[in-house]
Amino acid sequence: MDTPIPLADLPLFPLATVLYPGAPLQLRIFEPRYLDMVRECARTGGGFGVCLILDGYEVGEPAMPEAVGTVATITDFHTTEEGLLGIVARGGSRFRVERARAAGDGLLRGDVAQWPDEPKVTVPVEFALLQVILERLVETLGPHWRDAPQADYDDASWLGFRLAELLPLANPERQQLLELTDPVERLGQLRDILPRFQKP
Question: Which residue spans adopt a coiled-coil conformation according to this UniProt entry (predicted)?
Answer without folding.
Answer: none
